[in-house]
Amino acid sequence: SHEETRRPPTKSKTLGRCPDTPPTLVGPLHVEFDSQRTLDDVREMISSSLREGGRYKPPDCVAQQKVAIIIAFRNRHEHLTHWLYYLHPILIRQQLDYTVYVINQDGEGVFNRAKLMNAGYVEAMKQYDHDCFVFSDIDLVPLDDRNLYRCFDNPRHLAVAMDKFNFHLPYKTYFGGVSSLSKGQYLKINGFPNTFWGWGGEDDDIYNRIIFRGMSISRPDSVTGKYRMIKHKRDLHNEENPKNAGKLRQTKQTMNKDGLSSLKYTVKEIKKDILYTFINVDIEAPL
Ligand code: UDH
Ligand code: NGS
């Protein structure tokens, strides 16, 4: 046709699929939490690579997965600066099609990490057709960029060797810190529990859900899976909840009714920064 003949013959518009192993990874990283670092420094350094909302797509190949990075958040702005400073360059080198979602718990009620993650899943799906979800604490930075922030054949635990645990797992079934689940894996377990208020146990409940649905845990090796945690004091309104440990004996009975199927929250604000999508949610927290 006419159009066909006018197209330059050497330049094809169809990009190939990105390789299984990204070519530009560097391996072990130097990580230091310099207190002088500001969000504007990070913006200046990274924003030219990103699109509004903290989104990125590799320019020269089609990413294998569309990843949503979900962070449960309240009042940790200094940690957010460090996290963005380190993670954006890593995620770019990993050639991911990704978006960073910071899910902020509105108000001063008791914190609920897992319920915030559920709200993050639902809100991310409204923004883009994500097929993979990485759930991360704000205070954990990987020490090796070969630790891929994507999904695997089974739910993945990424934070396997944290400095605070002497670069070991604290126990074999530990699933805390950073994990990834494909959309299918997440739906299979009815998402995360909504009822673990305060600190402790929600990660163990997620582990139970995965096992009860016949899946296993995928992990990187303990060299690739090293992390540095930003040191901090215990937050206000996130005390250890002694009820949570007992709830773990009930996961099999509760998981079908407590999760994505029972999730209730309201969005109060969505703000798209160049470095992240900030979603403020009211999760009906007890005071
Ligand atoms: N989080 C917030 N704000 C809060 C509470 C938690 O953003 O007020 C998020 C944040 O992403 C954090 C994650 O939830 O990384 C997990 O919470 P956490 O950092 O409180 O859990 P962790 O086990 O620390 O890291 C518990 C208190 C440890 C006190 C140690 C004193 N040396
Ligand atoms: C377990 C908690 C987990 C927690 C892990 C590590 O006891 O939620 O310790 O905690 N389970 C319960 O409380 C039932 S840490 O050493 O990071 O403070 O992730």
UniProtKB/TrEMBL annotation:
Name the gene behind this protein. Answer: LOC117749567
Q: Tell me what organism the protein belongs to.
A: Cyclopterus lumpus
Name-wise, this protein is: Beta-1,4-galactosyltransferase
Parent-protein residues present: 63 to 349 of 350
| Pathway membership, UniProt | Protein modification; protein glycosylation
| Cofactor needs | Mn(2+)
As for family, the record states: Belongs to the glycosyltransferase 7 family.
Where can this protein be found?
Answer: Golgi apparatus membrane
Region spans: Disordered:
1-19
Presence of the UniProt keyword Membrane in the record? yes
Lineage of the species this protein comes from? Eukaryota, Metazoa, Chordata, Craniata, Vertebrata
